[in-house]
Each structure stands twice: as C-alpha cells, then as structure tokens.
C-alpha cells in the first residue's frame, strides 16, 4: 500500500516529545552536556594528550563560529590569485 502525499501511515501522528528542529536538538544537547559537565571534567583528566586534543577539537565545533568565506569581499587582485591557483591545481601543478 503506497502512502499519499502528506500521509505518514501513522494515524496517531507524531509523538508529543519528538524533537523536530535543529534548534530544539541543539538545545537538548546543550542541556545534556551542561548537566554532565562535572563528569566530563573528571573524564578529561584521565584522557591521554592525544585524546584530549581530539575531544577539544570535536567540542570546539559546537561553540566556535564556523569560518566565513565570502567571495564578494575579495579584491580583484585576490580573486585573480585564487583563480590562478585553482587553474594550476586543475592542471596538476602546485603553486
């Protein structure tokens, strides 16, 4: 039996506590991490240096802004340099 557009096959609908947005999910994750902060700090102390760096990098993604790159903000000279570098890479040359 195929579903019609707009029908999920679940006559009861979505369960009440289902998280349905990225913002809501971020809030849930933030609340969980905040409640577990003491445990995370204890665990941090027993990690190897390599594992600490890995954990730091992974956690930093959630609190630091991502890099912004807007081609419209580049000068004509910078665009020319970028285009030249791309052409060189496509041709198999480095530089």
Sequence stretches where pLDDT stays below 50 over 5 or more residues: none
Strand content: under 5%
For the report, how would you describe the main beta sheet? none
Whole-angstrom Rg? 24 Å
Please tell me the total number of domains: 1
How would you state the average pLDDT, rounded? 81
Order of helices and strands: HHHH
**Derived structural class:** mainly alpha
Distance between the termini: 59 Å
What fraction, in percent, of the residue positions are helical? 55-70%
How would you describe this structure in keywords?
mainly alpha, flat
Q: Can you summarize this structure?
A:
The chain is an all-alpha fold. It is 57% helix and 0% strand.
How would you summarize the topology of this molecule?
Blueprint: H1 22-35, H2 37-46, H3 49-63, H4 76-90
Care to describe what's here?
This protein has 95 residues and is an all-alpha fold. It has one domain (22-90). It is built from 4 helices and no strands. The termini are far apart.
């Amino acid at each position: 039996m195929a579903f019609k557009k707009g029908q999920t096959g679940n006559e009861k609908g979505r369960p009440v506590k289902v998280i349905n947005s990225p913002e809501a999910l971020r809030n849930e994750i933030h609340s969980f991490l905040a409640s577990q902060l003491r445990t995370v700090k204890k665990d941090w102390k027993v990690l190897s240096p390599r594992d600490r760096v890995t954990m730091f990098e992974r956690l930093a993604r959630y609190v630091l802004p991502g890099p912004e790159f807007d081609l419209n903000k580049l000068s004509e000279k910078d665009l020319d340099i970028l285009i030249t570098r791309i052409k060189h890479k496509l041709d198999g040359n480095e530089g």
